[in-house]
Every structure is written in structure tokens, then in C-alpha cells.
Amino acid sequence: MNDRKDREVRTDRLGMPVQAENYTASRPPGWQGQLGGCGIASCISLKGGRIDGDRIARMLTIMEERENGLGAGYACYGLFPERRDQYCLQFFFDDEEGKQAVEDFLDGRLDILHDEKVFLRERSTISPPYPLVWRYFANVPHAREWRGTRDLGEEDYLVELVQHINERVPKAFCVSSGKDMAVFKGNGYSYEIADLYDLGRYSGTMWLSHSRFPTNSPAWWAGAHPLSLLDWGVCHNGEITSYGVNRKLVEMNGYKCTVLTDTEVVTYLWDLLVRRNGLPTEVAAFVMAPSTFQEISLLPPAERRLAEWLRITYKEAFLNGPFSIIVGRSQPDISLIALADRKKLRPMIAGLSPNEEVAYCASEESAIRIVEPDARTWAPGAGNPFIAVAGKGIVRRGTEPSFQGVSL
Amino acid sequence: MSETPPTKRLDHRLPERFLPIVNYDLCRVCRRCVNDCSYQALEFRESKVVASGGCVACGRCIAICPANCIEIRPVPPQFAPHGNWSERSRRSILAQASSGGVLLSSCGADDEHPAIFDDLLLDAAQVTNPSIDPLREPVETVTYLGRRPGRLEVCDGKVMVREDDTPLIRMDMPLMFGHISLGSISYNAQQALFMAAKELNIVAGSGEGGLHPDFYQYADHICSEVASGRFGIKPEYLKEVAAVEIKIGQGAKPGHGGHLPGEKVTTMISETRMIPRGTDALSPYPHHDIYSIEDLAQLISVLKESTEYRLPVGVKIAAVHNVGAIASGIVRAGADFLTVDGFKGGTGAAPRVIRDHAGLPVEVAIAAVDRRLTQEGLRNRVTVCAGGGIRSSADMIKALALGADVVMVSTSAMVAMGCRVCQQCHRGLCSWGIATQRDDLTSRLDPNVAAARIVRLFRAWNEELKEVLGAMGIDAVESLVGNRDRLRYRGPNPKIAEVMNVKHIGEGWG
């Protein structure tokens, strides 16, 4: 611990010290979550082409007022075309001991086909300690015994394993666990994280990114965004005032809250509503940012009935308070969802390249213009999801009526 | 002069508790106070109005006096001071030694048990999230009461809505009136409650005394109660109302049934309850067909069958120490909603020993029920209603944040009508015409005026709820329900905070 005394004090844009303690995989003691403002940016190749990592880094770093060096991250989808059907589990370890514990735990529970160290530049301006970042490609075995034979589906089984590791296995944290995607995040400015992971070496169909302006809290690598479970990746700018209510719903459905942030709960809600309950994406977005009962009363009968019952049934999934989120999936298709709260108290702007091949969503227009000066941009409405799918294009611009295209 | 030795008479005699004082400089000797005092605590003697003993501080004389010349003074302690033998304990002993009976009282427990509500502080939004002004932007308080499906099924991308399976009541605010029976209160008082419930678009409990034929016009806003006495239960009592509730217990007297003295069983009460006139209406302590949870499940099924699954069927229990597990059993037995009535809940008549010493404060009970139902994955299937000593919109808001979907109020509605909480309901002499069946007294209460006062009170509470929601950065009440993160405890006993899963003041997050 003595070496910390000599460490250079990091400062933010205005020269103020920004950091108390730095934690990697292990949750900081007394950690109670985090809050603050954020910048989010994303891009997706609508034809399924590839976008390199430098592009997303430029988008994110231009929004410099939105971060103060206490966390940034990126998620890339369509990243492993050679191993598209394998799960990629990417971990932070505090040290070799954490790695060993995870490997012992996974032994016999997953069929690990390949593992590798994730490249980190050796010289970086980010203060140590750094985590050991490791990646495992795995298949879920046919025989899935976990706390007795429960005939769990592949994905539910993986969720249980990942949540167990994050809750119980010391010195280790699984930061992403989906197919054909991975998360690159840590404690630093957006440009530092891009540099640390050398994002330029990666390219993918879709990128999500997030930078953070926390108002307090220690710095925790694993707590940075994107938060991810299976192939879900969520970048979130906001403060959910209904967190206690939303958390109850995910916990009732078996999710274990280990990061203790609203973003984590948002991630689990997408998994619960869309993957497990099977709600169409637009419908899940309505559940999280619903219309008022007054607005609902003006809908045509079939839509009104659906809207009322969504609000009644899923009232614990209603995300109250200011937020804008960018959500990614790789299954069944690589998709980008952007959604702001129903009063649109946090910014969200969408854009499309002139050749209509790349779509963008970001907190600020500058993030889009820096990489696509001639993009056509528009503002998705309050509580109105933007949805783009690789290979299909923009499915929803975020300006349509609530249930357009939903079978009633 | 009586032959009785003076000492024997003196044994019975307790010092007065309240003394009405008349300012004779102002008194016009109109004698309205004397005529209006149903406790005969004032008399006209030698051209003056004087106190004649037995004042209960109901305040009727103060309100009726045109010269505004009466005040009621609490009589200072008349017993030698003693730290352990309080005046209250000595009075009880003396009264009981004289009567040899169980001491009765009414309204909620009146000991100075501090309310945990007063130890809770609410959160508000600053900078990191914006507060919302409910006068400029929508803040919703619409609340549904009944069973919820937990999830909607999806077939081929189509979300299936089966609304016939789960009848729900839509209310404009997260509030219901508790069960106050016709019998314990007057026709006019109950009519005022029903009129107010209709106007507010909420639900009012019928109480266990059946439903007067005149009140079926309010049936859409009435939750009829099936208590152990089964008074007044007939097909339309179950079928024509908004909801049906099985009463297992009441917060003021957990483990007891209803008590309505025969003096209050007038012709009207006898017809409504379907019992003989003048007989005591004492409902049994348990339902004699419910000795266990599976019996309750059967009664719930019977009621659902007989109402053709059109109505939510609920169960009301008194908050007792194991309330969490009991609540879980009730939900599993098929209840669509669950009402928890706390320790400080009101009553028209209850043994003092039970009222003051049995049960669980509603604050703790709500948190325990909410947590238990959440742990068991049941919380999003059922509506939790809770009440018992809700005195203000602040109490209501804190009850919501602790985990109640709907807050039940009774005493505050009666106070709005005129009740001064003098705790004499069991005597049937209510000078305000509320807790009485005497025609001369009930005629003092105009249901239209009383209903308007109740409506104004709870509209104001609902506005205050919106103000607080907005300040918290929440724009719909469901996002407050069970949101204990937005509460902090500042009381003397942090263990209470821990049990309720509420953080201590000074503990933030992030």
C-alpha cells in the first residue's frame, strides 16, 4: 500500500482531484452504487459491414464535458466472426488467484474452446492497479448440472454461472458473456480506455460506448459501463428514481444485483422482458417508458387495452426519472436500441450517414458530426425507442406511434 | 340523604378528566350547549350553564356556542405524582375494581407509542436528477387494486391480454376507506363515506354490518366485508359491489371479532345485519369455517365462484408479529389483494388491553410483508393495502414508500366529518352524529356536507402526494411503492431501520 503515497494525483478538466481508491475486479468495500451524468454514443453498420474502434473512440471523446476520468467503456458486436456461435466470457481478475478460482469453477461446467489474454498497452496514463483481462470462448455443455439438475436452458444456465461468479468468486468479475461481442471498459477517460485496449485493433458491426461524470464514489473497473449480461450491453446516462422498485422485480426473477447500480438493473430488465418474457422490443421499451394513463385513454381500443395491461402487469419495470440508454444485442441479430425516459429529461439524438449505411445514436450531435459531418440527424421522442438491426436497417426512428408494427 | 355510608360512594368516584368552562361575561344563556351535550356534562342551573360532570372533550359545545364562550380544560393531575403508577394506570384499576369487567374503549391505541412514521424522512431530487412540478407536468396517481398476472404471455410476437381473468379496480388515488360498519357508525356517516368514495373514485369498505338497501347506488365503489359474524350477507351484497374482502382481523383488536352492543342494534341495523333487534352483535373471534390457511383458500374459492370471478377477493388481517409469512400464505391461498391493519388502527369498541398491547406497528408490518412477498416472488401478483393510524398525507406517502400499493384511512375521514377522537364510540352517544344510532344525534350530520369535507381532505392529500412525488423526481405513484431507498430513518433505534430495510440518515449511495 505504501507505493500509493507516491502516486501522482489525477485531476479532471478543471484541475480538481478525482480519485480516492482504485478497484478492479473486487467490489470496493462499502460500495453503494454510483450516480452522475454521462455521455453515450453508438454506431451500427446497417448492412452488416465493419466499423473500426477508432471511430467510436472519436465519437465518445469529443463529448469531454460529460466525463471526468472516472470510468469509460466500449462494447463491440459482430466482433468474432470466426467464433460467432461461441459464448465469449471476458473477465477482470485482481490477480492470478482470481483467474485460477474462475477456471476451477468453470472446469466441467463450460466447454472452454480457447482462451487468451486481452491486449492491454503496457504504458498508460491510467493509475494502477490494472486488472488482468482475460477472454474465454466456450460452449455450454449438453449436461448442465447446477445446484441439481434443473433442465436450465443454455442462456439461463450461463446467467446463473456468471451471476454466481460475480457474487461469490473473489477477485474476479465477468464483464461480458455474450456471443460475438465483448466489453472493453475501465477506470479512466474515454481516450485513455480506447488507448489502453488499443481499440483500433478491433472492428465490428456495432459499437456502444459510455463515459462517466460521477459525482462521488470510488473508481471500480467492473462497475464502469457498458454493463452486460449474455449479449445484452447497456450504456446509460441517468438516474433512475424508481431504482428500489425496479430492483425488486429483477431480484424476484432470480437476478443477483452485484454492481448495485441502476444500469445493472436496466440490463437485467431487458433480459427479463425481452429474452425471458418474449416481449417485442418496442413493447419492452413501452413498459420501461410508458405513456401516461391520460395518453393511453386516447389510443384505439386494442392498443389501449395492451398499454393498460402492460402498465398494470409490469409497473415494477417502469423506469422513472431521467435517463437515456443505448442497448445492444447480438442475438438473434445485431441490434441497437436507444431509448429516453418518457419526459425526455436526458438527451438522445439519432443520425444516419448520407449513404444510409451507418446509423448513430449519441448524447450530443457533436459525437455524430465528428465522424459523419454530413449525417442526417433527428431527435427520437420521449419514451420512443430507436431501433436499428444489422442487415435490416432502421426498424424504428423513434418518432412513430407507440405500437406501430406491433401485432395486436 | 342517602343511608349509604359515604366511603362506599367515594370508592366509585373518579376525578373528572375534562372541565367545560363557560365565560359568563359572554354567555347569552341560549342553552344550545346543554341541549347538544349528549353526555349530559352541562346543565342549566340557577340561570347559568354549569358543568355537571362526565365531560369527554368531544367539543360539541364549543362548536355550537354562538357566543364562542366555552372552553374545555383538561383537569390537571389529581393523583399524587408517581413515576410508575401513572394516573392512567390508577384510574384503570379503580374503574375495573368498581365494574369487575373488561375495560372497553374505542378509536386507536392512545398510549404515546411514538409513530415510526415520524422517524422517517423523505428524499428529494437535486441536480443529478430533476424534480418535477406537478402543476406543469403530469404526475400520475392512478392505482389499480386486485390481482396482477405477473407477466403477459406472448404468442408469435403477439402480447396476449386476458383481462377477464383478473378483475381489477381502477382508482384515481392510492387510497381506500377502511371498513366501518353501519351500526358502529350512523346511516348518515356511512352515506357520507360512500358519497365521498364515489366522488374521489376510490373504494370504501362496507364494514361487517351488511349494506343498507339505499347504499347500493354506491356499489361500484364499495368493498363488501365478509366477517366471522356473516352479518347481512346476501347475494347482492357480494355480487353488486366492486370487491369482496374477508375480514380475519382488525389492527385495533387482533384476534377479536366485532363488538356491537345491543343498544345500537336498532330496527334499521337489525334489518341490514339480518339479526334480531336489540341483541348484541358479537362476531366470533375466528371464522368458524376457517381454522387454517387451507380453509381460507376454500372460502376465497367459494366467494370467487359465487361472484363468477368478476370481482377481486381480498383478505384483511391485523398486523401481528409473523405478518410476513401469514401474508404469503394468504396470497398463495388465492387472495387478489391483502389488507394489513396496523397496531394503531381504529375501532368502534375494543377491549383496552388488546387495543393498547397487541399487534405490530403498520410501518414495520408493511415493510415485512413487502419484503416477504418479494422474496417469494409474489409481490407483483397482488395488491397490498395497509392502514392503521394514518394521520396525514406524509404518513400515507411513507406507507407507500415502505411497500403499500394502497393506503387505507378511516379515522382521518371521520375527523373530516367532525369526529374529535374523544374515544367514546362504544357508548353510542356521539354528539356529532357519527358513532351513534340515536335519531336525534344522527340528524346532526348532513351527509352532503360531510362528504364534501372528506372529498376536500383527500383531494388535498393527493395533491400533496403529487408534490412529494415531483420533488423526488418521480412522475407516477407506482414508482414510489416499496421504494425504500427514498426513505431514511432518524429515530432512536437503528434496529427498526434495519428490520424495515431503510437506511439511516446520513447514509447516501454512490
How would you characterize this protein structure?
The complex is a heterodimer of chains A (about 400) and B (about 500). Chain A has about 400 residues and is an alpha+beta fold. Chain A has a single domain, classed as Aminohydrolase, N-terminal nucleophile (Ntn) domain (Glutamine Phosphoribosylpyrophosphate, subunit 1, domain 1, 4-Layer Sandwich), CATH 3.60.20.10. Chain A has 10 helices and 21 strands. Chain A has helices at about 55-60, 95-105, 155-170, 190-195, 245-250, 260-275, 280-290, 295, 300-315, 365-370; strands spanning about 20-25, 35-45, 50, 70-75, 85-95, 110-115, 130-140, 170-175, 180-185, 205, 205-215, 220, 225-230, 230-240, 325-330, 335-340, 350, 360, 375-380, 385-390, 395. In chain A, the strands form 5 sheets. Chain A has a 7-stranded antiparallel sheet with strand order 9-4-11-2-18-17-19. In chain A, strands 13-14-15-16-20-21 form a 6-stranded antiparallel sheet, covered by helices on one side. In chain A, strands 6-7-5-8 form a 4-stranded antiparallel sheet. In chain A, a hairpin with a 3-residue loop joins β20 and β21 (about 395). The longest helix of chain A has 15 residues, at about 155-170. Chain A is globular, with a radius of gyration of 20 Å. The termini of chain A are far apart. Chain B has 2 domains: about 15-100, Alpha-Beta Plaits; about 120-505, TIM Barrel (Alpha-Beta Barrel). Chain B has 16 helices and 23 strands. Chain B has helices at about 5-10, 30-35, 60-65, 85-100, 185-200, 235-240, 265-275, 295-305, 325-330, 350-355, 360-375, 395-400, 410-415, 440, 445-470, 495-500, and strands spanning about 20, 40-45, 50, 70-75, 105, 120, 145, 155, 160, 170, 175-180, 205, 220-225, 245, 260, 280, 315-320, 335-340, 350, 385, 405-410, 485-490, 505. In chain B, the strands form 8 sheets. In chain B, strands 11-12-13-14-17-18-20-21 form an 8-stranded parallel β-barrel, surrounded by 6 helices. In chain B, α13 crosses α15. The longest helix of chain B has 26 residues, at about 445-470. Chain B starts with 5 loop residues before the first helix and ends in a 6-residue tail after the last strand. Chains A and B meet through α5 and α9 of A and β9 of B.
